Amino acid sequence: MPAMTASELYLYAIVPSGDQVLFDIAGVGNDSGEVYTIPYHPADSSARPLAAVVSPSPIPDYHGLKRPEAAAYLIAHQRVVELVMRGFSTLPVKFGTVMKDKDQVLRMLAQGQAGLLHALDKYGSKVQMELVVLWNIEYVFQKISQDERIQAAKAQVVASPAEDSLAKKVALGKLVQAILEEQRAALANDILPYLQEIAGEIIANPLMNDGMVLNLALLLDEDGTHKLDRTLETLDALFEARGYTGGASLVFRRVGPLPPYSFTTIEIQSLNFEVVDNARKLLELQETTTIKEIQHAYHRQVIRQHPDLHPEQLESDDGITRLTQAYRLLSNYAESQYKMTPDVCSLDRESVSQAILISVQRPDSIPA
Fold first, then answer.
1. Does the residue 2 lie in any domain?
2. Residue 4 within a domain
3. Which of 176, 184, 180, 181 is nearest to 134 (CA)?
4. 166-184: string of b/e by CB count within 10 Å (b at 16+)?
């Protein structure tokens, strides 16, 4: 295995493995660096091992990069994760995550063991498929123009005096958009039940233009790609029977399988003592505290600064924002501490510098 150096380590994914594995792929921004696993074996021999997929990191911080450079790093990150998932159940780690050395990686795996294994059981063997449904927007607008409501609105524009025609044209445009959304929603309502039969979860992504009917991320089992193909064949036949042929036809485009980026991403955060200490002082807490004390301190400080009680405090809104940020930071930290030392939350420099916050981030989804 590669010899460890003093350079930071870039994290790609968490896998359920106790083996040292070397991957035949270049790492992020590092054409000659090796991508490999750092395995963690719990002291309890009955517990399952974990490993982090890493490579030497060319830079210590990926925030604030210019778009072309960030895009190049992101593509390399995704390429590694997609290779890893061919051989392992995989939890992607948030892009740009860097840890200072092997020891910190092992502490992270030890601290997050239970939560990471739970997330692996739920998502590690899943794949993500991207599905875009398109329609011929010119044909759609042509059909909308024949709608009785549009014909009536056009007649009002023609019959209106010049000074009123602009408002009528604006109303016409809004009506066209409303009917477009009405037809799009009707198609989506027809399509989604078929997809919900095969997908564990569905995320509706923003539509990029009027030519899109749906832009979805689907969470599927490993054999779900075959089920998706059969479902799309069924939908093609269904809409063809309804007259969606030729210029009116719907187009289904799928991409994948991919790691489940949209459904679960591991976020790992090392803490800065000064930031944590400032949050502690803002809530007027001692260096040893509990989650309940953090909650009570937050509520106490919010009451003190609430604008309804103190309208003369012009900056109270900003003050409450800072209190909320401090509360969230300390609550997350306290929860991570309790996993290691129940009922104790130490906010001294040594404890904070050793702490690592691990969370599973998930956006909202359409229930399947």
1. no
2. no
3. 184
4. eebeeebeebbeebeeebb
pLDDT of residue 342: 54
Two structure tokens written together for 286: 């001692």
* Distance (Å, whole) CA 172 – CA 166: 10
Strands 98-99 and 9-15: antiparallel
pLDDT for 4 equals 41
* Last residue in a domain, options 95, 125, 155: 125
Q: How far is CA 160 from CA 154, 176, 265, in A?
A: 10, 19, 56
How many other C-beta atoms can be found within 10 angstroms of the C-beta atom of residue 122? 15
pLDDT digit string (tens) for 8-23? 899 999 999 999 999 9
Q: What share of the chain is helix, strand, coil (3-state, %, to 5)?
A: 45, 25, 30
DSSP string, 80-129: HHHHHTTTS--EEBPTT-EESSHHHHHHHHHHTHHHHHHHIIIIIT-EEE
Show the domain range for 326: 271-361
> Same domain, yes or no, for 245 and 281?
no
Q: Which two tokens stand for residue 82?
A: 């997609």
141 and 245 in a common domain: yes
Provide the number of structural domains found in the chain: 3
pLDDT digits (tens, 9 = 90+) for 225-270: 899 999 999 999 998 888 887 777 889 999 988 989 888 888 888 8
